[in-house]
Amino acid sequence: MTELTERVRTFAQEREWEQFHTPKNLAMALAGEVGELLAELQWLTPEQSAAVMADEEIGPRVRAEIGDVTIYLTRLADVLGIDLVEAALDKLEDSGRRYTVEAARNSAVKIKGHHPPGA
Amino acid sequence: MTELTERVRTFAQEREWEQFHTPKNLAMALAGEVGELLAELQWLTPEQSAAVMADEEIGPRVRAEIGDVTIYLTRLADVLGIDLVEAALDKLEDSGRRYTVEAARNSAVKIKGHHPPGA
Amino acid sequence: MTELTERVRTFAQEREWEQFHTPKNLAMALAGEVGELLAELQWLTPEQSAAVMADEEIGPRVRAEIGDVTIYLTRLADVLGIDLVEAALDKLEDSGRRYTVEAARNSAVKIKGHHPPGA
Amino acid sequence: MTELTERVRTFAQEREWEQFHTPKNLAMALAGEVGELLAELQWLTPEQSAAVMADEEIGPRVRAEIGDVTIYLTRLADVLGIDLVEAALDKLEDSGRRYTVEAARNSAVKIKGHHPPGA
Question: What is the pLDDT of residue B107?
Fold first, then answer.
């Protein structure tokens, strides 16, 4: 991850793109790339989406979009001075306290496919 | 990153949320979290966004949203069988061929703050 | 639609929010609201999503999110000087030329549930 | 608006795309189009974004994206049985109660360009 952060930073510096890389602009770019990812999956059934990486045409496009999303997320975190993995682990711990295993299971059983609380 | 992937996977398994975690659903959840991140930055000036982590109120919220985005991106990549860092490095190499350093610099100078091609 | 545009404009003026309503900021706010809409639908099956308005709890929330999305889209179009309905009709005409009825039907039959080209 | 709703509905019916147009899929398509709109504005300064419609190259693209967003929003509302204008007016009334003119103005003055509450 650290290597990726540095590679992305160098990429931007070499092109003199740092002037454009405010958190606001990078968050928009991140959202734009997530939009492209959604576009690849939007008409698929849940089952088709689960098998999408086996599709010779769509699979590589999904991987490339995931790559773009990761690039912008890494760059945004770098500019903000945030460690992505630490931020995620902290949030996971926080979510673990809010959605205990027992409560989540009961809820998953009860609603049977109804929407569970977000992670 | 590997540790994070496993922690997120265990988190979902313990709560029996795997049934909900199709690529399609996870991409939507990722987009939803990116939307929350945008909401934190939407009314800020570029300068305010650059200093957002120093804000006692908004800074921690931005970090938590970045954590949520990372969690869903990690989970989505795990379900798809994609290595996030490899996908990003491959895409970066590809972008490097399309936007050479020289062309990007010339363009950045010429447009002076106009929108550059995406990374 | 014209009445809505004026009501939203007055709403912003009365609160002295015009200073925040640049196209860039409003596009972010629009995306944020779309993110909230996605969050309501993300864990639902296609069938559950089709019946969502009959759900006493989620139905009104979906309607409120649709309202928020419409408010920001209307405000953004007003600030840009774009007539929403005209822009949509022009785009529809353009899409009609690119995806003829015959080609679209053949493709829908052939792929049987595979993703069609976007509208 | 009613005419647009019918035109979009006919467009989908003629192409036999109704099978793809669940609320879930349409919300994803809406988000994808909003992502394309963000991509047009992401590197612009606030000032550049305010003048974007005067740009011969970007202006028409922004208008086309606004058209796409409106098409999918209209289609989604049609499928859900929601009247877009009514939903927006109801939400506006609700927001008016939560953010009174007086409180919003005081807050706008106090924070001087800091983020106001959402509409």
Answer: 73
- Say whether pLDDT at D89 is over 70: yes
Question: In chain B, which residue's Cα lies nearest the Cα of A114?
Answer: B20
Of residues A1, A11, A34, nearest to B30 (C-beta):
A34
Average pLDDT over every residue of A25-45: 98
C-alpha–C-alpha distance, residues A11 and B64, integer Å: 27
- As a whole number, mean pLDDT of residues B29-52 equals 98
User: Number of CB pairs < 8 Å for C and D?
Assistant: 222
Whether the model pTM is above 0.90: yes
Homologous superfamily assigned to D2-82: MazG-like (1.10.287.1080)
In chain D, which residue's Cα lies nearest the Cα of B52? D114
Orientation of helix A58-80 relative to helix B58-80, angle to 10°: 160
Given an 8 Å threshold on Cβ–Cβ distance, is C115 in contact with A46?
no
Q: What is the DSSP string of B57-93?
A: THHHHHHHHHHHHHHHHHHHHHHHT--HHHHHHHHHH
List of chain C residues whose C-beta atoms are within 8 Å of the C-beta of residue B43: 20, 25, 29
Residue A104 pLDDT class (50, 70, 90 cuts): confident
First vs last C-alpha separation in chain A:
23
CB pairs under 8 A between B and C: 49
Query: D41 contacts in A (CB within 8 Å)?
Result: 28
Domains of chain D, by residue range, sit at: 2-82, 83-119
Predicted pLDDT of residue C104: 85
Nearest-Cα residue of chain C relative to residue B25? C42
ipTM value, please give it: 0.91
- Nearest CB among B22, B27, B53 relative to A38 is that of B27
Q: How far apart are CA A36 and CA A52, in angstroms?
A: 15
pLDDT 10s digits, D19-49 = 999 999 999 999 999 999 999 999 999 999 9
C105 contacts on D by Cβ (under 8 Å): 15-16
Stated as kind and residue range, the H or E segment containing C106 is helix C101-111
The 10 Å Cβ neighbour count of residue D6 is: 12
Of the candidates B118, C73, D61, the residue with the CA atom closest to the CA atom of residue A33: B118
- Report the C-alpha gap between A106 and B15 in whole angstroms: 9
Residues 6 or more apart whose Cβ sits within 8 Å of residue A90: B63, B64, B67
User: For residue range B69-85, what is the model confidence (pLDDT) as tens digits?
Assistant: 999 999 999 999 999 99
